[in-house]
Every structure is written in C-alpha cells, then in structure tokens.
Amino acid sequence: MPKSQIPVLKKNRPKRNTSRKIVFILLLLFIVLLAVLFFRSSMSRISAIEITGNVYTTTSELLEKSGLKEGEQFFGTTSADVIERLKTIKAISTVTVDKQFPGTILIKVQEYPTVAYELGSDGTLKAILASGTSLTVPATIGVAVEKPILTQWKADDPLKAKLSEELAKIPNELTTDISEIIPNPTPSFPDQIRMYTKSQFEVITTVSLLSDKVEYLNQVIETERPGKITMLEADTYVPFIPDNPEEDAEPGATP
User: Fold this and answer.
1) Using H for helix, E for strand and C for coil, what is the string for the chain?
2) What's the CA gap between 56 and 87, in Å, rounded?
3) Which of 49, 121, 176, 235 has its CA 20 to 30 A from that of 149?
4) How far apart are CA 25 and CA 187, in angstroms?
5) How far is CA 87 from CA 4, 59, 84, 182, in A?
6) Strand duo 178-183 + 149-150: pairing
7) CA 60/CA 182 separation, integer angstroms
8) Which of 241, 169, 236 is nearest to 203 (CA)?
9) Which residues pair with 109 in a beta bridge?
C-alpha cells in the first residue's frame, strides 16, 4: 500500500504587536503637537539681543547687519550666519555669538585697532583703523593723543589703506612721537610720505619702508637735535641748525 503523505503543518505566525504600533503613533503625534506648541510660544522667540565691544560702529548698525530681530524665531538663524554677516563690516575684526536659551543672544565684536586720525571735510575727527576704514569718532569717547594725524589724503587713496596696515605693524611706543603724516609722492617713490614729529623733526620716507625704518627714526630722535631725516634707499640726517653756524655763512658776511 502506498504510504499516505502527512501534510506539513503551517507554522503559527506571531500576530503583529498592534498595541506597540499604536503607542508609537500616539507618541509621534504627541511630539509633533509639542513642537507646534513650542514654536508658537514666546519661548521659541528672541527676547533679547545684547551687543558689546563696539566703539566706532553703532549698535543699531550692527543689529541691522546681523539680521536678528526681537520676536523672531530663536532657531531661525545660526551663530555662523550672524558672524559671517557682521564680518562684512570693514571695521570688524572678530565676532563671537553666544545663543543662550531661552531667547537671549549675546554678540561680542572686536574692531580693528586705531592707528591714526584725520579731519573730515566737515571738520569732524575720524579714526583710521588698521583695516584702512575711516570712521567718525563719537563725542563720548576719548582720543588717543599718541596716534598721528593724516592730512591731505584723498578718501579713495589706496596708499592710505596700505599706510594703515603698516602703522598697525609698528609697536605703539615707536609711533608716539609722530604727529602728522602727509602724502608726498615723487616719480621715483610714488608712495613717498612726509612726517612731522612732536620733537620737531621732519621725516621723508615711503609707506613700504616705514615699518622697517622706524627704529632708525627713533634712534635719531633720541640722540640728535631737531632736523630733517631721510629714510629711503639710504638713511641721512641733517640738523636744522648746524653745529657751527659760521661754517654756513657766506664769504665776507659779517656775523
């Protein structure tokens, strides 16, 4: 007799855990609901923006450039975005942004150092920063008297920006005696400048040579009488009053 085949019994498939699925859906809906409520609440909004460190740039200018406004979404922009916007201002050297939840954003800026001053066409005093930017000096702050005054410079003169960079390289103690810097270009030295010092010296040099020659300038000022100092390819010093005035007298002239 042929053997009868016993049918293979089907394995019992475990029933899906529908209760777990329902719990997951309810949890997801709850999270979405909380997110909606949060972003509609005042806790998700910017409640205060504090800006510190600015001297010549106004707080309103920085606030506008940052793109931030009180009442807007706290997470609507990143700190990196704010830093990138503020660093487009030529006066700003560094920026840090600290977002403190809930709602407070602290912005600290550092401007380029002041290297000189100049008088504007309207008579206002302007500060020249190391970046070459010229900004009006607020009446509420003092003026560093050890910084030189730039006169007769055109606003768009590229040498003024280069001069600002060179002055920024020089330690303050080496520029305290320089009172005035005037452009004095020549065919041989298109970046030539004339400087006057508080100790009554007249100095001829160039923008490109200034940072290398300034130590020689101070050596002469400390050891010699007032005179004319030339610091170009060669360095020379001639006193305004010779050691022996009689040597410069014309022949036959009476003393």
Assistant:
1) CCCCCCCCCCCCCCCCCHHHHHHHHHHHHHHHHHHHHHHHCHHHECCEEEEECCCCCCHHHHHHHHCCCCCCECCCCCHHHHHHHHCCCCCEEEEEEEEECCCEEEEEEEECCEEEEEECCCCCEEEEECCCCEEECCCCCCCCCCCCEECCCCCCCHHHHHHHHHHHHCCHHHCCCEEEEEECCCCCCCCEEEEEECCCCEEEEEHHHHHHHHHHHHHHHHHCCCEEEEECCCEEEEECCCCCHHHHCCCCCCC
2) 15
3) 235
4) 82
5) 88, 14, 5, 30
6) parallel
7) 34
8) 236
9) 95
Residue type, 64: E
Report the distance separating Cα 107 and Cα 208, nearest Å.
36
Long-range contacts of 78-84 (CB under 8 A, 24+ apart): 82/107
Token pair in block for residue 49: 């923006």
> Cα–Cα distance between 62 and 92 in angstroms, integer?
10
Residue of 45, 98, 89 lying closest to 65 (CA atoms) = 89
Look up the pTM and report it: 0.72
For residue 146, what are the CA distances in angstroms to 41, 114, 165, 178, 199? 53, 11, 17, 8, 13
Sign of CA dihedral 57, 59, 61, 64: positive
From first to last of the 255 residues of the chain, give the pLDDT tens digit: 555 565 555 555 555 567 778 877 878 887 877 777 666 666 678 889 999 999 989 999 999 999 999 888 888 889 999 999 999 998 999 999 999 888 899 999 999 999 999 987 777 889 999 988 888 888 777 776 788 999 999 888 889 999 999 999 998 888 889 999 999 999 999 999 999 999 999 999 999 999 999 989 999 999 999 999 999 988 999 999 887 655 544 444 333
Per-residue tokens: 243: 């050691």
